[in-house]
Amino acid sequence: MNKIQHFRDLRYGLFIHFGLYSMLGGYYEGKETPFLAEWIRHSLHVSDGVYRKLAESFDPVNFDADAICLFARENGMRYLCFTAKHHDGFALFDSKADAFNSVKKSPQKRDFVRELAMSAKKHGLDLCLYYSQAQDWDHPGGKRAYDAQPDASLFEAYLTHKCLPQIEELLTQYGPITMLWVDTPIDMTKKDSRKITDLVRRLQPDCLISGRVGHGLGDYMTTGDNRMPKGAQDRLWEMPAGLYTSWGYKDNDRPLVSHRELLRLLTKAVGRGGNLLVNVGPDGAGNIPDEALFILQEAGHFLRVYHEAFDAPLTVPDYPYEQDDFLFSASPSKLFIHLLRWPDDQLIELYHVESPVTEAIELQSKTKLELLTGRDLEGHAYMKIRLDRCESEIQYAIDRFGQAVLALTLTEPSVSISNLS
Predict the structure, then answer these.
(1) Which residues lie below 8 Å from residue 326, measured CB to CB, with a gap of 6+?
(2) Which of 52, 101, 254, 303 is most buried (CB neighbours < 10 A)?
(3) 265 alpha carbon, distance to own chain's centre
């Protein structure tokens, strides 16, 4: 299996934004940051001396890599992406290239990347690492969004002496890395972006590179933050989805989405040929907020029951009619209908789904539903599914999880949906 298909099969991952900024919770000297909590060093102009001193008290005693990986696996996630170094420049691994890291500067000398690498392997998760390749607010040559950029010689010094050596450390010290999630290239030249891709290809040829490496050099499309593609895509893509306004921990943040909305995002991603990478931001002690845990646990409960519909490897062609009643996912043998509301007339009508179907069931109970197939007067495929045999099961799933799932058995290993022509 090639690396693109392997990554596509992972489908659902946990993003973890964690660092010194987690200790501040979005506040500095009594002032709330007007922007993302993980950007506080930049947005509130925290001095270098003050910010670096935070490392001396960085002791997240409750950050438990094993518990995080077990939780992710039990709740349907198959990969993990961790901020090895964010824009603030503080690395959460043992780096010889730059001493501003958790091993050399914090009291417990912990290598969080190593802890997660070991636990991810133990629990069968793929490990991906986030690395801010252009922005680095601790190095004089690092770029800063919305500010004047360092001159070319200073950035070259940063790239040569910190960025590339640290990426090499990440790809040689922690075993196989499924994907390097680089971010915000700003005005990096194509030559500089290619230095990163060439290094990754040389050290770990099977390691994917995110679309934010710049200049179209990534292996797949990284969408905008919280931006869902409108329909099916021809190439692999991944949507980073934040549960909160900030990606790093912020004291007064409240969830943007419920577990129902999260499941709907995941359903859209799977059916449209992409992955969903959902983020949590542990606090300074290493605790993931309770609200985030509840959202992920509720989604995980649903995925344990309906996992077959999310193990679906096929991209489903766009349905040609405007509607808000259902979404699709598909495997070579089944087309899954994710029903988003209970229809008043107790039936679903599908037009232009040309794939031959032999039966319809409610996926949890395996109850066979009444199915009628044929052609409309214009000659297009027509399908009617009556739901009254499973009203209680479907109503319960929609009320609790925002959707229920039906499975249609296909006689061909593909899904054909015709347009309106």
Answers:
(1) 337, 338, 339, 340, 348
(2) 101
(3) 11
Per DSSP, the three-state class of 269 is helix
On the question of pLDDT at 45 being above 80, the answer is: yes
Find residue 349's DSSP bridge partners. 384
Q: What mean pLDDT is predicted for residues 271-293?
A: 98
In whole angstroms, how far apart are CA 174 and each of 96, 118, 183, 199, 263?
A: 15, 8, 21, 16, 32
Question: Does 1 score more than 80 pLDDT?
Answer: no
Q: Which two tokens stand for residue 391?
A: 């009203």
CATH number at residue 336: 2.60.40.1180
Q: Which uninterrupted H or E stretch holds 339?
A: strand 334-339
d(CA 80, CA 12): 9
- Pairing of the two strands 357-362 and 367-375: antiparallel
3-class SS at 126?
A: strand
Does the reported pTM lie above 0.85? yes
Same domain, 376 and 236: no
In angstroms, rounded to a whole number, what is the distance separating the alpha carbons of residues 180 and 232?
Answer: 25
Say if residues 136 and 216 touch (Cβ distance below 8 Å).
no
In a domain, 199, yes or no: yes
The CATH number of residue 32's host domain is 3.20.20.80
Together in a domain, 294 and 367: no
Q: Are residues 25 and 82 in the same domain?
A: yes
What is the average pLDDT across 159-173? Answer: 98
Cβ atoms of 20 and 42 closer than 8 Å: no
Total count of residues recorded for the chain: 421
164 occurs within a structural domain = yes
